[in-house]
Structure formats: C-alpha cells, structure tokens
Amino acid sequence: MALKIGQDHARFRHIVRGRIRENLRKYITHGELIGRHGKDRVSIPIPHIDIPRFRFDDQQKGGVGQGDGEEGDALGQGEDQPGQGKAGHGEGDHAMEVDVTIEELAEILGEELELPDIEPKGQSKLDQASNKYTGIRRVGPESLRHFRRTYREALKRQIISGSFDSKNPVVIPTTADKRFRSWKTTTEPTANAVIIYMMDVSGSMGDEQKEIVRIESFWIDTWLSKQYKGLESRFIIHDSVAREVDRETFFRTRESGGTMISSAFKLCKSIIEAEYSPDQYNIYPFHFSDGDNWSMDDTLACVELLKKFLIPWSNMFAYGQVESPYGSGQFIKDLREHFSDESRLVMCEIPNKDAIIQSIKDFLGKGH
After folding, report:
1. How many domains does the chain divide into?
2. Which pLDDT tens digit goes with each residue over 17-59?
3. Which of the pair, 163 or 225, is modelled with greater confidence?
4. Over the range 190-229, which residues count as b (16 or more CB within 10 Å of their CB) and which as e?
5. For residue 313, what are the domain limits?
6. Strand (E) positions, 264-336?
7. Is residue 229 domain-shared with residue 258, that is, in the same domain?
8. 236 — phi, psi (to 5°)?
C-alpha cells in the first residue's frame, strides 16, 4: 500500500511539474509567485486538475444503461439551463495551490530557459563542515541513542543470563546495554557567492520600472540560490547619492532627483573590498537603470570603475536598462562603445515585462 501511495504521489508531482512548466512564462511575466514566497518554498497557483470520477444522474430513473438516450451519451447531464442571475450556494472551481521548493522551481526555470550550470571560480572554494553518522559506540548523549541496537543488546544479555521470560517478554535496558550513534566531522568545498543589486531610483524610474526589477531579481535569486549554497544578497539604491538598504526598501522606496550612477558603483566597490574577497567569493553585481546619467564625466567615471575594479573582480557584471518614458537610454550605448569585447559585462534592454524572460536568459545563459 505504501508503495502504491508513493507511486501515486510521484505521478501527481510529475503532473504538477508539467503544469508549472506550461505556465512558467506567465508566472515570470506577471510576478504571481513573489508574494507567495516563503523561507524555502513557494506556493504556486496551477490550473484546475480534473481527477477522473463517475458522475451519477440526479434523476431517479433506473440504473446504468436504462431509460432514454443513445449509446455514447454522457451520464448525469440534463438539458441546458440558462443562469437565472441569482446567488448560488454550490462550490465553484478554484485554482489549486501546491508548494514546491525553491530548488525545484530553479530546476524548472533552468530547464525551461535552457540555462547552463554555473562553473564557480577555482579560487572561491571554502571549506564547509558537516557531520556524518559513521558507526555505533557505548557512550553518547541520549539524543543519539540507537533504539534498535540498545534493545538488541538488552535482549541478548537477558537471554544469556536466563532472565528473559518468553511468556512475559519485557526487555529493560541497563546503562551497559545502551548504544549511541557516532559521527565524524568532515569538510567539503563549497562555493560562496554574493549578488549586489543596484537600482536607479531617480524620478524617471516609476513603479512599473521597479516592478520589472523586482520580478527579475526574484528569478535571478532563485537560479543562483540553486547554484550556490552560500548565496548572499545586498541591495543599493541611488539617485545622485547611493546608499545600502534592505530588500524591502530596495523595492518599495520612492525617490526623486538626479542620477549619478558612479555613486552606486563606488559603494559596490567598497562593499566588495570590505567583505567579499574576489579570491573567495563569486561576485555578481546587477545594475538596473533607465539609462539616464548626470553627465558624460560621471559616465566616464563609471567606465573607469568597471575597467579597474568591478569587472575584474566579478564572475559577471550585469546591466539591465529598463525602458522609461522619461529616460534617454544613453548609458547602455556608452557601455557598448567602451566594452564591446568584454564578455563578463552582460547588457540587455528591458522594454516591458514581456522582455523579462529574455533578459534572464541573456544574464544567466552564459554560465558565468
């Protein structure tokens, strides 16, 4: 029975996974999953899945195969009745929600967008300690007591001593009978990574542009979390001045004023220097803007920071330019002019929500 239940559950999960894949592009575009994001699971609304079942006629007319009708007619369906416009009391059809882990969601995203696994930097390997149970010993904490081995030792002792009564088979372990699981601490290399999100929050970046950034950041986080166990995320907002904020502030803040992109790049550089050695971390800066900058002098300062520090330190530096009716869109043109041959600087234009999918593929599809 347990095997049958397991098979049915696996089959159901396969169906659900297929439905998620079918609707993934809609979820990505509309951002339906972000508000359902828990600590390590996501609740996903999927289209109604019909479970086959018999439907019985509600009229008291004999049994199956009796009464009026032709072969092949559906059971339990009377004449079409138009609605009367009144409130009903019956249950309606609702979308079903299922929980999937972030790792499952990342796998589906990778399969659907054909994203390659990332190859971490060779020098970014950090040792992570883990405990593995390797044997049995006579001493240890009660929390690690091995019940079966303890019972077997007590039973063996009572049989040998002749105190075991088969008519009253009570087995009482003594201290000498107790057995405990033993463990061995091992270290294994793991790759740590940090994503540093930067967003222009000047007056030309409206709610729609920030929503695009929010959706894209969620899916980037989802994919990179699968690639790196030690993923950290940092957030920088800027207009003419940059400051580090938490995740909620990053997406909810309303700012205005001019734009100096170099302020964000300088703060990003400071964070990396202080906390994330490029020899030990895989570093992913992402900057989102509408392409307006204060002056050409500030753009040249950005180019200098990218050439000397941010690009050499990073696995990939990503720049996403979100289209705004108030932005000139000039910054991406300047970057293309100065970095036409730089493979670690990945740039894309995001005119609307429908372009998010291609943007994710542009950023993550190279496997940096």
Report:
1. 3
2. 566 666 666 767 765 555 445 555 555 554 444 445 555 555 5
3. 163
4. ebbbbbbbbbbbbbbbeeebbebbbbbbbbbbbbbbbbbe
5. 190-364
6. 282-289, 317-322
7. yes
8. -130, 130
